[in-house]
Amino acid sequence: MVTFSLYSGLDLDGALMKPTMNFLQKLSADPTNPSLKIKTLTNAVDKRVRTGRINDQFRAVLFEIRDQDTHHFVLVDVDSHDEGNLKAERLDPARLRLDVNPINGITTLIKEEPAAGDAAADVDSRAKAEAAAQAAHELAAQQAKAVAREKGVEAELVEKQSPAPREVLGELTPEKLWEELGIDPALTEQVLALESEDGLDALLAPRPKWEHEAVLVLVAGYSVEETRESLGLRKVSASEAAESEDARLLAGLRQAAAELEFAYVDDVDTESLRSVIESGSFEKWRVYIHPEQRRMAENSYKGSARVFGGAGTGKTVVAVHRANNLAMGRVAGAGPRVLLTTFTKGLAQGLKSQLNALNQLYPEAGEPGEHGVWVDNIDAVVRKVVSLGTPEEVSEATRRVLGVAAPRVRPYTEMAARQVWEGALEATDESMPREIANEAFLQAEYETVVLAGGITTLAEYLKVARSGRGTPLNRRQRKQVWAVLESLMQTQAIDGQLFWPTMSAVGAEILNVRYERGGGSLFDHVVVDEAQDFNAGHWRFLRACVAEGPNDVFIAEDSHQRIYGNPLTLSHFGISTRGRASRRLTLNYRTTKENLDYALRILVGGDMEFLDGEGDVDSVTGYRSARTGPAPMIVTAKSEDEEFAVAAALINGWLAEAERAAEEGKHKEVRVGVMCRTRGQLSRVVSGLADHGIDAVQTKNAELASHEQVSVMTMHGAKGMEFTHVILMGVGKEIMPLRFRLKNLSEEDARAALQRERSLLYVAASRARDALVVTTVGERSELLPEG
């Protein structure tokens, strides 16, 4: 059997895609095919190194491993056919070797130095790389400040010195880390010599991916045991150590941590290859997933399960892989009907795009409940189910939810819903305190107490425990509140129109009615992304979509990104993920360390705790980034025109930098996201940038934004997106938080509203991959961190 591993360092342009795939197909069919011209290099440090003919101009660099019936090739590079004209930055085949770590058994690719044993040269090259990276970051910061000075505005760089790694590692010696994890003692010595974490990036860049990750985890404060579990590391047994070298190399390539660097391909299938070729991206053969994430995506659970963590930690990647694995039958006992859902339409389109990138041949359901994966936002799924309900089912469902039957229902428009609330508030008892006679309080009470508890009568409402509701109500006030809520429920039934949370609860009861009458569940498995924003009606609906049992509901959430609704404890809806079914991710793959630190400090500035779906406090400690970059910048302008001028100058500078890189034959991606707090600011931002020569496109669709150089959106609309450069505009004292939203709120509701504003600012700031700029006219928002 012929199998392959693909090295993550492969860098193929569009012209090389198809010939490389054709080469792999031929090699899979017959490794002795003479047209492939497989050659052994006589001067190579590793006897397994081979070259093969891709076409007249290019050749493949690969390793050949033979063990019993397995014939394995490791493709590491595609380069110029002329060995005498190898590019300096490419991998020289003669100096490459595959090695197995004797402690943990992981296979890694090693590049031998020209001068054997020249450790000083190695240290010097890393020092130069570190200095170059630091210089690039400082240059970016200087250029940004120079733009601000040129425009005559105040600019402040937000810089924070990181602690020295030795302060965190404590008594973890080079010898201990070698014996326990297999980390090179020389590398540990260099890490301990650093004066701050700022040099880690450059130091770890040339190291094997598993070692890179392990050091980052340890420097983040994790124990040896936690690091081992995170990466799936283990110690080599005596029997394994005694096996042949080829057998150990193959086993090492199959380890979870090795998959950070190599994609193991069991079967080079013609259709799979064709789908990769047609996708236009060789990288889409393998969607990156960390060993810790892989376990969550592949494990079988007795019931529900949950992955949680900060922005950019890969929760969505886990959710997409999980849905694909369930649909493809790769999870023990998995059924064929899978729902993959999220909060908004734009986010759902992003999930579908990622699922296509992972597996273009995944089984897609034609309708909800059919075999395959159904991908859509939660409200669209609800609407589909309700629209297909019979008059009898809808009547019974509305009676259970509203206490009054309605044979047909549809959702209110946003304007109509507002008018219903205004009418209800006008009719409130004048003796009701203002802090409860307002839409914010009553809407939360309706969703988190009444809908969540399935309450339809005053008697039920007077007895229910209002868990999680900070504002207490005496018996008289409960009666007053119920009078308003009952009126709202009756109005919905009479109108035959529902608020969206009510719509979801009705959809749940339609499914329950069918189940009670002998029908089956709509889905076998439900996978939920951005779960922190779902309301009580949504959770009633999702619980009704799938029967309780193995792998029923899988949740990806981050309580710090809750920008809609209120915290809910999911066990109240029959969804429990406590214990080993719940896993926290801490490594940020998107945001630089500097930007991540700034975004997290936005969150810790408040005085409320963030509660997750289990009702536990969700901490921000332990989050880390594998990347460094320029410090965030705060710009204070005297007028909007000055603010637009600075933003435009920065954008022009970033775009010009990308053009210079292109002229030098390099690729530097620049996608700018410009975000503001309110919809009313959008048109002003687009026209203001246009006045200064920037062609920006207003959008709230992640897929469309990924094709634009400069996109403008609200902070809410930026959810689920990422950009190389981000500008948060108009973050002034009167805009964040919006003062009118806090009017007449109780102290507890006002604190909750402020917390959502912090979460919104955190979401926006964490969209930045490389550079983050915050601009304001006059006094800045109180939600921005100091210094």
TrEMBL record:
It catalyses: ATP + H2O = ADP + phosphate + H(+); Couples ATP hydrolysis with the unwinding of duplex DNA by translocating in the 3'-5' direction. ATP binds at residues 309-316. Pfam families: UvrD-helicase, UvrD_C. PROSITE patterns: UVRD_HELICASE_ATP_BIND. Keywords: ATP-binding, Helicase, Hydrolase, Isomerase, Nucleotide-binding. Its EC number is 5.6.2.4. PANTHER family: DNA 3'-5' HELICASE, UVRD / RECB / PCRA DNA HELICASE FAMILY MEMBER. This is DNA 3'-5' helicase. It comes from Corynebacterium jeddahense. The gene is pcrA2.
